[in-house]
Structures are given as structure tokens and as C-alpha cells.
Amino acid sequence: MRFVFTTYRRLRHAASELRSDARGLAATEFAMIVPLMLVMFLGTVEVSTGVAIDRKVTLVARTLSDLTSQSKAVGDTDIANFFAASYGIMWPYPSAPVRATISELYIDPATSVARVQWSKGTAPRDPGTPVDIPSGLIGKDSSEKTLPGQYLIFSEVSYLYQPGIGYVVSKAGVTLSDTTYTRPRQSTCVIYPTPAAGTPFPSCPTN
Q: How far apart are CA 17 and CA 12, in angstroms?
């Protein structure tokens, strides 16, 4: 009987000590919190970097379109310089993943369809190819007829963002893209290629 009583007392004492023993509690909590902390930290780094790059992609598209629209005529050297200046905006991020195309569109007044006049870049569009544009960019008169002589400089930019760690954002990457439309500033359209010296300046094409 005494043995049973003694054993019972020891078990109660052991259970009481177990309840009050906090050794290893911090390690257990740390093991539970670390995965969440890593997701929050690495996720913040990867997502914030992606947001910064996405903003730069937008700036590249705007700059490329803006530089082109300021010319009356452009040649291959001019366009190469426009691309180089626009890609510089990506610093300090690498510009190698950038894919950009610059095109001039003519809006047919009879059909209100925008078609490519010329296109240069990573994936140039074929001349005459229709391009969907926002309806708000199509100028119309009071009777809702499309006005003649409308041209747009259209830039398309994409960037494959691949995070260095790939803990939250897929290691395969995410494609960020943007487009910009700008009306020619110095003339009705931007002629490509630049006319040879001494030759008459051509009129804007409409085909």
C-alpha cells in the first residue's frame, strides 16, 4: 500500500514539474515562427523588387514612345538610340530581359481600324497588321465620324522577372508588360526611313 502511495506522489510531483518546466519552449516557438518569418521577409523582398521593375517597364514604354514621337523622320540609327536610352532606365536591374517594339499606327477614317505603318524592335509587326487600340484614342467629329490623318506611336515592352531566390515568386519568373500610345508632336506622322538628303519629304502614308 505504501508503495502505491509513494508512486502516486512521485507521479503527481513529476506532472507538476512538467507543467512548470519551460525549457525548450523558446526553441519550439522559434521552429513554428521561422517559416512564417521567411515567407514574410523573402516575400517582401521578391514582391517589392517585382513592383519596382514593373514601374520601370512602364517608364521604358513611355520613354520609347515619347522619344520617337518627337521626330519628323527616323532611321535605324535613331531607333537604336531610342532603344538604348530607354533600356538605361532599367538600371540597377539588368536590361537583358527587356523585349521592346516601337510601331507607327494609322487610323483608317473609313473603318476606324488602326494599322501598322512601320515597326521595329524585338518582335516587329508586319505592315498593314491591325492593332486594337482604346476607342478614346480615336478622334471623331460632332457627328461621330472618325477624323482623317490620325497617327499613333505605339510602344510595347515586356520583361521576364526571375527572382534570385524564388521562395514566394515562382523561380520560372513572371512576365511584366506595358504599352504606351503617343501622338506625333512635330508632324502628322513619323516617316521611316529618313528620306535621303536632297529628296522631297514624303507625305504620310495611308495604306
A: 9
CA distances from 1 to 5, 7, 29 (A): 6, 10, 43
Contact 179, 167 (CB under 8 A): no
Q: Residue 189: which residues within 8 A CB-CB, separation 6 or more? A: 104, 106, 117, 151, 204, 205
* Number of neighbouring beta carbons within 10 Å of residue 21: 9
Give the whole-angstrom CA distance, residue 88 versus residue 94: 9
Q: Say how far apart CA 195 and CA 177 lie, in whole Å.
A: 33
Q: Residue 202: is the preceding peptide bond cis (ω within 30°)?
A: no
| CA end-to-end distance (rounded Å), the chain | 110
C-alpha cell at 47: 514582391
Question: Tell me: the pLDDT tens digits for 55-82?
Answer: 999 999 999 999 999 999 999 999 999 9
Distance of alpha carbon 72 from alpha carbon 187, whole angstroms: 6
CA atoms within 13 A on the CB side of 191: 14
**Cα angle 124-54-49, degrees, rounded to a multiple of 5:** 135
For all residues of the chain together, what is the average pLDDT? 88
Q: What is the residue extent of each domain of the chain?
A: 25-182
